[in-house]
């Protein structure tokens, strides 16, 4: 148990028992004199070269026995024992009340306008695509160039928070890798809801498969809220293979795995979700198309 006075208080003294082991004889009483100290109630001896006593301000209470007088211009310190911690002053630095995160609702375009200004709207975006589609690059660029505060939350980054016991799906998909993926998605959802509750937009990126609706898109909807706007980034297979070849470490997949994932992602066609083919687009141009797609999605939300 921590106390406002710094060190923990000693255990209470019980009649008929000696001092607690490990505590000084007089430690149970804050006012007990130390060896060589002046008797309790006696004024402290003057410092060398000091004659007389410091004047006391009108209305100021004298210092407690054994307590040094406050410095000029300093308020006297008050020691409170047994009252619990004093609540912090809400006006002081470091004590900022944050609204709790909750499910994200669908944003609505301003009245009297044909479509929303996505650059000035708080949004929750899920960028879907295969490995090598450019999700992370586009998400980072889009988040950095918005006029409102925006956070980029990458599922792979959060998943790799696990350092010891990291379950790499490339070594074989099993219960451990499945659990770590689900934990990462839930953690990203919590983070997105907290950011959005405090006025900060979020863009998340993940390789969500259309043939796993409960775990994939349905899971993100549960974690973030019905206002999440999913957009699919799906360039051609040859582009995805080229970009994957530039990767390193556990994020680089085999060509066979990339082709298999790309083929599964083709199932998003006909799903009703907006799809961006960025085969011939660089990152800034893709981010601009993403803004246009999001403006239309706010005006006419997709059914998913």
Features:
single chain; 304 residues; alpha/beta; Rossmann fold; five-stranded parallel β-sheet; 7 helices; 5 strands; 27% helix; 8% strand; disordered N terminus
Tell me about this structure:
The longest helix has 23 residues, at 175-197. This protein is 27% helix and 8% strand. The chain is an alpha/beta fold and 304 residues long. The protein has helices spanning 135-144, 155-159, 175-197, 217-224, 237-245, 255-265, 283-299; strands at residues 124-128, 150-154, 201-206, 229-233, 275-276. The protein has a 5-stranded parallel beta sheet with strand order 2-3-1-4-5, with helices on both faces.
Q: Could you name the CATH homologous superfamily of the domain at 118-299? A: P-loop containing nucleotide triphosphate hydrolases
Instruction: Indicate the structural class.
Output: alpha/beta
What shape does the CA trace take?
A: globular
The spatial strand order of the largest sheet comes to 2-3-1-4-5
Strand content: 5-15%
- Number of helical segments? 7
Quaternary state of this entry equals single chain
Outline the low-pLDDT stretches: 1-13, 17-30, 49-54, 78-82
What's the Cα radius of gyration?
31 Å
Distance between the termini: 50 Å
CATH topology of the domain at 118-299: Rossmann fold
User: Kindly state the mean pLDDT as a whole number?
Assistant: 75
Q: Mind summarizing the main beta sheet?
A: 5 strands, parallel
Portion of residues within helices:
25-40%
CATH architecture of the domain at 118-299: 3-Layer(aba) Sandwich
> Any idea of the CATH class of the domain at 118-299?
Alpha Beta
- The count of strands amounts to 5
Strand/helix succession: EHEHHEHEHHEH
């Amino acid at each position: 148990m921590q106390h406002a006075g710094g060190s923990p208080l000693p255990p209470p003294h019980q009649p008929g028992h000696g001092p607690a082991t490990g505590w000084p004889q007089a430690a149970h009483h804050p006012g007990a004199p130390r060896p060589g100290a002046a008797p309790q109630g006696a004024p402290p001896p003057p410092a060398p070269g000091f004659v007389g006593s410091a004047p006391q301000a009108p209305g100021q209470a004298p210092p407690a026995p054994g307590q040094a007088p406050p410095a000029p211009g300093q308020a006297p310190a008050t020691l409170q024992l047994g009252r619990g911690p004093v609540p912090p002053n809400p006006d002081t630095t470091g004590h900022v009340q944050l609204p709790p995160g909750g499910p994200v609702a669908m944003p609505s375009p301003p009245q009297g306008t044909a479509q929303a200004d996505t650059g000035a709207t708080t949004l929750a975006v899920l960028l879907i695509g295969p490995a090598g589609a450019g999700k992370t690059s586009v998400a980072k660029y889009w988040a950095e160039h918005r006029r409102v505060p925006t956070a980029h939350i990458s599922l792979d980054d959060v998943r790799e928070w696990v350092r010891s016991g990291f379950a790499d799906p490339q070594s074989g998909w099993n219960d451990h890798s499945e659990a770590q993926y689900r934990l990462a998605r839930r953690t990203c959802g919590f983070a997105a809801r907290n950011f959005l509750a405090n006025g900060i937009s979020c863009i998340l990126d993940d390789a969500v498969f259309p043939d796993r609706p409960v775990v994939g898109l349905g899971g993100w909807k549960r974690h973030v809220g019905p206002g999440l706007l999913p957009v699919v980034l799906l360039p051609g297979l040859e582009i995805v293979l080229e970009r994957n070849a530039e990767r390193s470490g556990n994020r680089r997949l085999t060509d066979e795995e990339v082709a298999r994932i790309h083929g599964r992602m083709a199932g998003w066609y006909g799903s009703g979700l907006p799809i961006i083919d960025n085969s011939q687009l660089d990152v800034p141009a893709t981010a601009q198309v993403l803004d246009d797609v999001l403006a239309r999605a706010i005006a006419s939300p997709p059914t998913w």
